[in-house]
Amino acid sequence: MSSQWGETLNFEGRHTLAPTCPETRPLPRTHARGQLPLGNLAPGQAMSLAGISLRAFALGFTACLGLLSTVLVLALTSSPLWRIPFFLCALSTFHFLEFWTTAAANTPEATVHAFLLTANWPAYPIAHMVACVECVLTNVVFPSRGWAPLGLSTVLMLTGLVMVVGGQTVRSVAMLTAGQSFNHTVQTKKADSHTLVTTGVYGLCRHPSYFGFFYWGLGTQLVLGNLVCFLGYAYVLWKFFSSRVEVEEGGLVKFFGDDYVQYRKRVGTMIPFVG
Predict the structure, then answer these.
(1) In which band, very low, low, confident or very high, does the pLDDT at 31 lie, cut at 50, 70 and 90?
(2) Which residues, including other chains, have CB under 8 Å from residue 34's CB and lie 6 or more apart?
(3) Which among 118, 56, 131, 121 is positioned nearest to 92, based on CA atoms?
(4) What predicted TM-score, i.e. pTM, was given to this entire model?
(5) What is 46-266's CATH topology?
């Protein structure tokens, strides 16, 4: 029988008993020799460490490259093309923060899907590519046909920057505040971890994560100087959130009853004609 105590020799030459490390057992292994049981952490699974690290690296690289390109173009040229790498930087930052806030506040849901890179595929990436094309056409190919009135383009661009930063901040804070009560998909069953959050940013806006993304998306188009995509983004985002809020609030009323009804009366969504 093993013991937690072993004999040792002290500096005076006397034998004493000293604690030793308890007996350890080797970690369980799968049937494949030399492999630990990883479950959802294995490659190809929902919480694949390989998949998460690869996506995080790609987003970080793109964000840094976009930021550096933006600074260099602004510093060394007078070209309006700094807007496109800025857009890529903002987009990469958004997707990284989607995962990071989920991992920090709702860890069980921190899967590769939490990056939202393949959400609404392929319409989502097509919309962003069209936005970049319009930016090039408006600012480079036909610069004299810019849609902003004389002297107003700078104001709209700065307004867009505020909307991008502000929208991203509100969305990330909302996800951190809601914790395990937040989910990227509408929930049809109330989990034990679900609580009605009405404090912090939720005391000012009923769906702050939607509010944040709505104005973040519109802000990116103001920065890019896009008119067509601004109107298109506004319509698509409004239609999406209008439908989603209607469905989601039906479930929230079922989950929390009159508490949510009263909360809905007190706090608006701050998205025009939604809720």
Answers:
(1) very low
(2) none
(3) 56
(4) 0.85
(5) Four Helix Bundle (Hemerythrin (Met), subunit A) (1.20.120)
